[in-house]
């Protein structure tokens, strides 16, 4: 009898954990069998990295982030990094020199924080400087976050803003230094960015939009301050760097696997020149690039697992023949871009939702046949802007108005035809901030509406889970995985459960 294919997974983060879970589920269903080894550099069970900013904000604790352990028949080497891939021999070599032979090597090595080339910052940042990408980094940050401590956050993107708000909840003196036009400039237009900065100011965050830091100041190696491009010196005790991430592709690159920014993969998530190497999650570069978000990573994990169990036994089957030589690549079929993009900030005290591509300049948009409508109320620190193409919202940004945001998200996602005057959408929700938004309420949501974007779970799946007996968020998470990513859908899931309890009381009685 031939042995099962050997799958070696490099990295044990959120996407690897999902891959192992999905592979086990599909294998049980299809009868496929694999011999699976996982090498995880971090000495922990996989954990929900998205929630680290919530830990900084005191809204979650580190212990609650742990994800389910790998299935029992998987061999996990925690705290063991892979250091080399030898493709000719098809082995992965770990930091202790052990060899792990594979039929399929799956890179799930994620991404790492980039330290900008600023004098005084070393490759790892140096004393007093950290990113917030791992449990260890988060712990180190929390250990020095005492009230009155002076911290600067470098980089006013989504994560930088989340961390800055989180630090304020701990009474840390926070300066947010952002190089560029305005905070969150990848998601927000300039007026929305200014509104967000005003809210940050109200929260006590000192926002500096500058042309950057020119120097990190140290005394005997110790961080004492930063010098801004305009010459101002800020005295600080700590610096948190959030200036972007880069895929961890060093091992693949050293093995000659084609790498651009990330590990280049085709539509089957295989390396372009080697069917026995795959990449998923933040380390992989598809036609859609390297989005650095959990939803595409989890989708890839599920796709690869399903394919291995259903169609691809041959591709991972043990082979005695050496690795195939690189062959000229057929142009991969272009895959459609994700059609709906919704970004929700998870920051204490600041509500921001961005829909679609960044908003265009209103006059440029007008020339392209789009209408851009804005409602802005600086006094109340709220604004909403939408770009409308004919009858549909194609982009939008809402600051400080979660109910308007809920309505607009719903209209954007459902592609509902808009009122003759789309301004009503902005005024309706804003004029009655306490009203439950009709469009976004659980009854009005169409059954196909996506509730959990991280996991791609629809309202119908949550309703079905309720019918099957799910009565609380944990039950729904177990049945559908909704709420297990960034957690921003938890309130909607609760709303659907409450609504189902009301409309389906007979079922309660039957279950009792
Ligand atoms: C604070 C924070 C908040 C975030 N918020 C959101 C959000 O709201 N929404 C969203 O979509 N995304 C968010 N993200 C991004 C999201 O966390 C990532 O998209 C996701 O973690 C990617 O999963 P991954 O498994 O590909 O990589 P990772 O989670 O980075 O895991 C990769 C693992 O591989 C290990 N590894 C690397 N090299 C090796 C090696 N050579 N040998 C062994 N192991 C190795 C690493 O140590 C790591 O444990 C956030 C990220 C952070 C840091």
Assign a percent range to the helix content: 25-40%
* Main sheet properties: 6 strands, mixed
Bound molecules: flavin-adenine dinucleotide
- Can you tell me the overall shape? globular
| CATH-assigned fold name of the largest domain | FAD/NAD(P)-binding domain
Q: What percentage of the residues does DSSP assign to strands (E)?
A: 15-25%
Mean pLDDT over the full residue set:
89
Broad CATH class of the largest domain:
Alpha Beta
Q: How many H/I helices?
A: 15
Strand order, sheet with most strands: 3-2-1-7-20-19
Q: How does this structure look, described?
A:
It is a single chain. The chain is α/β, with parallel strands linked by helices and 512 residues long. It folds into four domains: 6-112 and 246-316, FAD/NAD(P)-binding domain, CATH 3.50.50; 129-243, FAD/NAD(P)-binding domain; 351-431, Enolase-like, domain 1; 450-511, Orthogonal Bundle (Arc Repressor Mutant, subunit A), CATH 1.10.10.1100. Helices cover 29% and strands 25% of the residues. It has 15 helices and 28 strands. Strands 3-2-1-7-20-19 form a six-stranded mixed sheet, with no helix packed on it. Strands 9-16-10-11-12 form a five-stranded parallel sheet. Strands 22-23-26-25-24 form a five-stranded antiparallel sheet, with helices on both faces. The chain is globular, with a radius of gyration of 24 Å. The protein starts with 5 loop residues before the first strand and ends with a helix. It binds flavin-adenine dinucleotide. Residues 6-288 form the FAD/NAD(P)-binding domain. This is FAD-dependent oxidoreductase. Keywords: Heme, Iron, Iron-sulfur, Metal-binding, Oxidoreductase. Residues 312-338 are annotated as: Disordered. Pathway: Nitrogen metabolism; nitrate reduction (assimilation).
């Amino acid at each position: 009898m031939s042995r099962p294919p050997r799958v070696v997974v490099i990295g044990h983060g959120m996407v690897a954990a999902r891959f192992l879970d999905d592979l086990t589920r599909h294998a049980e269903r299809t009868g496929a069998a694999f011999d699976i080894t996982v090498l995880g550099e971090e000495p922990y069970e996989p954990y929900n990295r998205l929630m680290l900013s919530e830990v900084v904000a005191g809204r979650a604790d580190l212990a609650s982030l742990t994800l389910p352990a790998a299935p029992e028949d998987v061999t996990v080497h925690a705290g063991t990094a892979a250091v080399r891939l030898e493709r000719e021999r098809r082995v992965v070599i770990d930091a202790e020199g052990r060899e792990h032979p594979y039929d399929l090597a799956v890179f799930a090595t994620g991404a790492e924080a980039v330290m900008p080339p600023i004098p005084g910052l070393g490759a790892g940042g140096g004393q007093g400087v950290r990113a917030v990408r791992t449990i260890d980094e988060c712990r180190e940050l929390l250990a020095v976050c005492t009230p009155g401590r002076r911290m600067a956050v470098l980089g006013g993107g989504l994560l930088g803003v989340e961390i800055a708000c989180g630090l304020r909840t701990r009474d840390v003196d926070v300066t947010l230094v952002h190089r560029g036009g305005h905070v969150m400039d990848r998601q927000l237009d300039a007026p929305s960015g200014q509104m967000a900065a005003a809210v940050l100011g109200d929260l006590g965050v000192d926002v500096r939009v500058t042309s950057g830091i020119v120097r990190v100041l140290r005394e005997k190696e110790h961080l004492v301050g930063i010098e801004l491009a305009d010459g101002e010196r800020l005295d600080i005790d700590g610096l948190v760097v959030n200036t972007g991430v880069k895929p961890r592709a060093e091992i693949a690159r050293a093995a000659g696997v084609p790498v651009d920014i990330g590990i280049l993969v085709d539509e089957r998530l295989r390396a372009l020149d080697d069917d026995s190497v795959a990449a998923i999650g933040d380390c992989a570069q598809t036609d859609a690039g390297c989005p650095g978000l959990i939803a595409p990573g989890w989708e890839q994990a599920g796709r690869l697992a399903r394919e291995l169990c259903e169609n691809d036994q041959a591709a991972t089957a043990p082979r005695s023949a050496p690795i195939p030589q690189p062959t000229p690549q057929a142009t991969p079929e272009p895959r459609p871009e994700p059609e709906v993009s919704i970004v929700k900030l998870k920051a204490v005290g600041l509500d921001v939702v961005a829909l679609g591509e960044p908003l265009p300049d209103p006059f440029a948009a007008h020339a392209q046949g789009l209408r851009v409508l804005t409602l802005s109320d600086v006094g109340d620190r709220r604004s909403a802007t939408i770009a409308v193409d004919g009858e549909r919202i194609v982009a939008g940004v809402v600051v400080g108005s979660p109910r308007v945001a809920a309505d607009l998200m719903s209209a954007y996602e459902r592609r509902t035809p808009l009122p003759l005057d789309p301004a009503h959408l902005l005024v309706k929700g804003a004029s009655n901030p306490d009203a439950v938004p009709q469009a976004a309420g659980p009854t009005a949501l169409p059954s196909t509406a996506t509730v959990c974007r991280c996991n791609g779970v629809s309202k119908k799946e949550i309703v079905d889970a309720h019918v099957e007996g799910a009565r609380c968020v944990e039950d729904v998470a177990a049945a559908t995985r909704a709420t297990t990513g960034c957690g921003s859908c938890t309130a909607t899931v609760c709303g659907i459960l409450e609504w189902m309890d009301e409309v389906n009381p007979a079922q309660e009685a039957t279950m009792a």
